[in-house]
Amino acid sequence: MNKLVHMGIDVGSTTAKIVILDEASEILFSKYQRHYSDIKESVVSLIRQAYEKFEDYQVTLNITGSGGIAVAEHLRVGFVQEVIAGTKSIQTFFPETDVVIELGGEDAKITFFQDGIEQRMNGICAGGTGSFIDQMAVLLRTDAAGLNELAKGHTTIYPIAARCGVFAKTDIQPLLNDGAAREDVAASIFQSVVVQTVSGLACGRPIRGNVAFLGGPLYFLSELRKRFIETLDLKDSQVIFPENPQLYIAIGAALNAWNSEPIAFSALMERIDQMQGISIEPTTRLKPLFGSEQELEEFRARHNRHAVARKDIEGYEGRCFLGLDVGSTTTKAALIDEEGAILHSYYGSNEGNPLKSVRKAVLELYDALPKGARISNSVVTGYGEGLIKAALKVDIGEIETVAHYKAANFFRPGVDFI
Predict the structure, then answer these.
(1) Short-list 241, 225, 244, CA closest to 31
(2) 247 near 254, Cβ under 8 Å?
(3) List of residues 6+ apart from 167 with CB closer than 8 A
(4) Do 154 and 186 contact (CB within 8 A), yes or no?
(5) Which CATH class is domain 318-411?
(6) H helix intervals, 276-372
(7) What pLDDT, in 10s, does the model give residues 278-310?
(8) Nearest to residue 212, comparing CAs of 297, 98, 322, 81?
(9) Are the CB atoms for 382 and 402 separated by under 8 Å?
(10) Domain 95-241 falls in which CATH fold?
(11) Are the C-beta atoms of residues 354 and 297 closer than 8 Å to each other?
């Protein structure tokens, strides 16, 4: 009698997962890895690793996930929608579940099981998901795991918008620029994900009873899970946290494949070999920015007409003026003479610490400044204007849009639009 196993593959927006179950629904093999947008190679790699252990077996296979449809078509196997796969696994192993909260790389889902099944999922925006957390971690010069460690030491929660990464960044950068503790900002990012999920998906429907937490972010980030539990005021007895929550969608796909027609694993590998050298997704390209080399040269000539004049700072004597732009991610400095020519400039990442970055820029300037040069006035603009003006006693703090206008009008007097 041929040995039989059941395989489920979950191809998400950022990760790929594979699970192989035996006849008793026990996990015999599993892998979880980021695919870095190379879906085909990741899936092929996962299946090849499984084949090394189960080459003599018959296999049933279902694929799920946002990136799985094309893979399923090329392998000629079944596809199951990920919410259905997740529901299948939860109802199989935790039938007492009332609500499932699942976070993925670019999606968020809530499934209600009271009075029938109601499933809710976010739209095309990835705000409040795993990718959002990755992006916010960069602002704090760490990764998602580092963000989790920072959040363990928090004392204060700040309101942060998680609906959009741009909005969140607008909230986070001023907090960092004003000296908020990185630990507090980290925990606040997690709390913003909770608020976005609950308000954006539950939409007022109470989350009660036994709540299961699924998906990679909720598995790997204990502090994110903690923020959900505290916000929803759940007792320990109400929290369902499976042993492998990051694999539950793939497990559901494997369970859903139970009644599919088995094929020899070797036959599946032949289909894998046929995928080599072909693209599983059609390639679409944008139109080029320039239709010809002539258009490109015209563009360069047009922009080069307004190049800033530069002078050598060495040996300069007289008055000069310092401008600082402390932005959301970078620090810029420019020292100009009375005619507007640049004597010295600086551009660098602020790495989440604008005061340290500006100090570095100013010290570099002082090292280059000759004895005969005198900084007569200084102005700071950007996200960090308030902090830097107070800390370094800068003469003037200016609004960014006014600074933009001053520069544009210098090059193009009477400018109408910027």
Answers:
(1) 244
(2) no
(3) 127, 161
(4) yes
(5) alpha beta
(6) 293-304, 354-368
(7) 666 655 778 889 999 999 999 999 888 877 889
(8) 98
(9) no
(10) Nucleotidyltransferase; domain 5 (3.30.420)
(11) no
**Dist. CA 19–CA 6, nearest whole Å:** 8
Least Cα distance to 137 among 251, 68, 223, 51 occurs for: 223
Q: Which residue has the tokens 């080599």?
A: 276
Residue environment code for 150-186, b if the CB has 16+ CB neighbours within 10 A, otherwise e: bbeebeeebebbbbebeebbebbbbbbbeeeebbbbb
> Which tens digits make up the pLDDT trace of 104-120?
888 888 999 988 888 88
From residue 404, give the alpha-carbon distance in Å to each of 324, 364, 412. 13, 25, 12
- Per DSSP, helices labelled H in 142-181 are 144-151, 165-177
Average pLDDT, the chain: 90
| pLDDT value of residue 309 | 87
Mind giving me the DSSP string for 295-306?
HHHHHHHHHHTT
Domain ranges for the chain, please list them. Answer: 4-86+251-275, 95-241, 318-411
The conformation of residue 238, written as its DSSP 8-state character, comes to G
Q: For domain 4-86+251-275, give the fold.
A: Nucleotidyltransferase; domain 5 (3.30.420)
Distances (CA, A) of 75 to 15, 18, 70, 270, 315: 19, 15, 9, 9, 71
Closest CA to 223 of 193, 180, 190, 184: 190
Q: How far apart are CA 311 and CA 331, in angstroms?
A: 22
Q: ∠ at Cα 272 (5, 62), nearest 5°? A: 40
The per-residue pLDDT for 286 is 83
For residue 362, the model assigns a pLDDT of 96
Contacts of 387 (CB under 8 A, 6+ apart): 177, 178, 179, 326, 354, 355
Tokens of residue 373, six digits = 């040069």
CA 169 – CA 175 distance, rounded (Å): 10
Low-confidence stretches of the chain (pLDDT beneath 70): 1-2, 124-127, 162-167, 277-283
Distance between CA atoms of residues 194 and 21, nearest Å: 32
Please name the residue ranges forming H helices in 276-348. Answer: 293-304
Give the Cβ contact number of residue 371 at 10 Å. Answer: 6
pTM of the predicted structure, to 2 decimals: 0.70
Please, what's the b/e burial string for 39-56 (b: 16 or more CB within 10 A of its CB; e: otherwise)? bbebbbbbbeebbeebee
What is the token pair recorded at 284? 């679409």
